Amino acid sequence: MEKPTSLSAHRAQKIFRAWPILLVFFLALLTRLYWIHEKEYMYIDDPTSVSLAYNLPGWGKKTFEAGHILTGKELRQQCYIDDRGGLEGLWDDLAALHHDNRDGSHASLYYMALRCALTGVDTPSTDVLIRRSCGLNLVFFGLSFLSMALLLRMLFPGKTMLTTFCLLLAYMNPVSVSNVLQAREYLMAEWLFVLWAYWCLRAAARIHNQQTLWAPGTFTGGLAISAALLSCGYFNALFFGFSLLCLAVYSFRQHAYKDLGFYPVLGIASLLVCVLLYEGFFNFLHDARATEVADKMQGGDWLSNLRLTVIGLGYITALRILTPVWGTAIILYLVILLVRKPKQPFHSHRLPGAWLFVCAMAWAVIVMWMANWKATRYISPSVPLCLVAVAYYLTLGLQRVPKVLAGIFVAAFIAYAWCERPMEYVNRTSDREWPSHAKRILLYGPDHEEKNTLLLLTHFIGDKQEIAIVEHTTDIRHYAAEEDTTVYVYGAKNSPDLQAEPGYKMEKEFNDWMSVYTFNFQ
Question: From CA 75, how far away is CA 55, in angstroms rounded?
Fold first, then answer.
């Protein structure tokens, strides 16, 4: 038998190093495919994303018509199907999204990508929308995983098992898995967070090697990534700014003074590209939610908001980010530290990487404090980066415990990602009671915002069941079907107008936004 050549031996060694990483990738992919299969209807914000991507009425200034009776099949045909079809219709919708996406608090890049993914949908099926939107997210997941593998390879060269463990924590936690289930921009942002962090590490390496950042490839790459990062979420500008500031400090410490002008130029150029991608990029300054965020910076509510932020972060971290598995491991690690001193966690050449992880964690805390609701999805883009730092320190602790115990922790963490309780946005139909026996359902929509909630009911309405929007409570009796002894009216929670209407019997919560009000006029 011939001895393997050095080239084939080197190739075999590379394959041997890659197989644990590939194993984690396919495990994470399988987990996501399973939960996509389990998802039965779209999350609250998802139909809004579809409406915006299709440039449909029912959002912004145009609304669904009050008093117009539609069957469930007709409604889904209006909301779910690519009625324009073909490349011309796609181009028209992309041009409309470039001008104004009608959602001031969000930029347009994700809606443009979603519109491309929905091209050619010709059936009013919720399952088709779930497959298309989640399929788009799987693409972003693959790009995020690849970018993280490159980042870790640069940060921990030759440390295959450490890289594998970091990837396992970054992509098998419930937050990252749940991200694939919603038709929103957060998984796209997750990928761009990681890709931007990778660019920052490459930039730091150039600074360390006394190479200028003004190289065309470095500037162009940074400009493209940063503009995309900003164009899929306005809060992302904080992470962009924090990381650039850290790089500027690193340049100063390395005496790379000629690169200090690079950062403001990149920042200004990124904003210009953002406006080229989306003319309405600065529309968020006039959005009502911008005012709500600004109010959190002042007044007497900041202490209450701080309390809710701490509680929210604690709950999300304990159950969905670290999970109880690694929470227990961290407690044991802290006990071990009382007995044995830890190794030096980051060497000097890894310092920029440590800064990036700190930036990601600081970003998550600030965003959670600024957010109107303490929801996981707002901070989900930063979770993989944050967990890389956690994984590094956990590795130091797991080295001091028996391999069997370390294996038990890893297995328990993987199993936790297959449990439904910590998983968000699965949305089973059985979780919502629906009066399928009623001939006609009514939606109380006194204003544009309430009329838009019709999108949240599209999945549940039977094909032949009817629905109509009423603007005034006095219209309820008029639009109710004669054969319905009980009338079901969906509307905002705790609506005094509906509760005061004659015939009102009871209110029951339907979802986070709506209640169903029962009326009996006999």
Answer: 15
